[in-house]
Amino acid sequence: MERRFTFKDFSLFAFMTLLFVTVLLSMYMVDRQWEKMTEMQRTMEEQAGDLRELRETIRSVDQRIRSAPRNLSLTEKVDETASAPSAFQRATEASRKADFAHGDWRVTAFNVGLKTITPLVSADAYAADVQSYAIESLIARNPETLEWEGLIAKDWHVSDDGLTFTFQLRNDVRFSDGQPLEASDVEFTFSFIMNETIAAPRSRAFYEKIERVSATDKYQVVFTFKEPYFNSLSLAGGIGVLPRHFYEPYLSEPEKFNQSKGLLLGSGPYRLKDPTGWSPDKGFVELERNPRYWGPVLPAFDRLIWKVIENDSARLTTFRNGEIDTYSARPVEYRKLLQDDELTARTQNFEYMSPTAGYSYIGWNQKRNEKPTRFADKRVRQAMTYLADRQRIIDEIFLGYAEAAISPFNPRSKQHAPELTPREFNLEKAQQLLTEAGYADRDGDGILEDGHGEKFEFELVYFQDNEDTKRMVLFLKDLYGRAGVLLKPKPTEWAVLIDLIKKQDFEAITLGWTSGIETDIYQMFHGSQAIPGGDNFVNYRNKKLDTLIEQARATVVEDQRMPLWQECERILHEDQPYTFLMRRKSLIFVDRRIQNLEITKLGLNVSAVPVEIYVPAALQRYTP
Known about the structure:
Elements: H1 7-67, H2 73-82, H3 89-95, E1 105-110, H4 125-131, E2 139-141, E3 148-150, E4 153-158, E5 164-169, H5 183-194, H6 201-207, E6 210-217, E7 220-225, H7 232-237, H8 244-247, H9 254-258, E8 270-271, E9 284-289, E10 303-308, H10 312-320, E11 326-328, H11 331-338, H12 341-346, E12 347-352, E13 359-364, E14 367-368, E15 371-372, H13 378-387, H14 390-396, E16 402-404, H15 427-436, E17 457-463, H16 467-482, E18 486-492, H17 494-503, E19 508-513, H18 522-525, H19 543-554, H20 558-575, E20 578-584, E21 586-591, E22 599-600, E23 603-604
Parallel strand pairs: 1-10, 17-18, 17-19
Antiparallel strand pairs: 2-3, 4-5, 5-7, 6-7, 8-9, 9-10, 11-21, 12-21, 13-19, 13-20, 14-15, 16-20, 22-23
Helix pairs in contact: 13-15, 19-20
């Protein structure tokens, strides 16, 4: 007998389905409540520990007050401790605005997948951006005056010979796990960096001019330099202080540190929820506000989030949807977006050439697998620069939102030799140089060959998800082809690209360097840095340049130092270890709800630390 599906059966099926969904939702809610309870327990434990320490501090201060002579010295010390560092002036002014409010998240995106955010191990600007919110230095540069101001250090003194820098630290600074930051942590940071078992060759290149760092008191640390160095204060005061208690255990197992992905703990305004738990497979980086932050102003945002969105189109779509708060536009996008009334109604746009703007380049590797390459010949490198029509690249791909780079030095800085100008496109000159270097089309196929009959072809490594770079490489392929040089584009994932650099396993590569107020070129172009893991990964060596770099770095008087930098620039302009491509304008859109944005001498303050920006309560999007 055939059985039919009756209304009773349907009702029973619907009831069971509803029951199943209800059970699933209940389980989900229980999990959420459990997570919240776990988080509350963690927070309460931290607060309980802080309260215990606070009671001990109050008891200690009370005993000191009762036993101290009745004079002003103790009061002056208390007031001095409570005073706000000058580096917080702008953040303090922002916090006093009528619409200032704590809360909300700042959500941005990286166009590359981070391999690691562990300090020293990481080697890119993206990881450095994350670290800047978690790890602090002794001093910070004022974005308006460009003068140095105290941060962790409340004062400092320089010896008459310029070799000794003594910093007095604040006594109220704590790491995000509650442990106090003391001079011994600064001393440890230097020794940790200089330990050869730690994979930090780039940082060691910076700090090798320091002879020693000594904690001479609980809150006093002394930096002693081996010789005068023009950037001594920046070098010593700019060291990112690592907590000894957290990082020291890795000295006994350095490979665990060197291979780590997310060991991040410091005294900054934000922290990793788990300072050992981040990994690249998360697909984003999230920092939470440090509840123990010592600064006079707590940063506004509850969280900072960096999503990894490598595809340009996907990143723009995410910004259009309001899922990220900032977007650094490609020139072709920028012009179109300015005509988008819906987008401009809810965003702010900023267009500027930062005084610290970095530069893009093509690096010509001069030695690979211990053998000289064709790019070891200066004439070949010069020819490659003559073939790179930078002005057309700027006009046609970057729509004029850039300027041709001459060298590592900003053309508006005192380091620049004013008579030098970018090499303009010159096919005939390039062909002449290549002929002099022994290249000719020996078999009539349109491709040059060297004296051994090997064709002039090479791979150009570039980051695969940057559309403008991709277009530029294809453009360069056509330009080089006119001279009989075969460029083979090699699109590469970011993590793989970083590995190729460390191993110096490439022929040519296009990337960019960040820059500063005064650029020290030692790590990129000094011959001693042409080592595995070093930043002179194109294996460039020029003894005269090495000597000039050393002299410039040792010359403290600016008027005497600048002619030395200018001579360095003349050598680099002649040798062309890089084809210096361009310096690009920043073209940035920011969600309109974010307030207190300003272009300073260091650029847009959207990433400034101490944090100056905020979202008024009425405009906040993300709530607990």
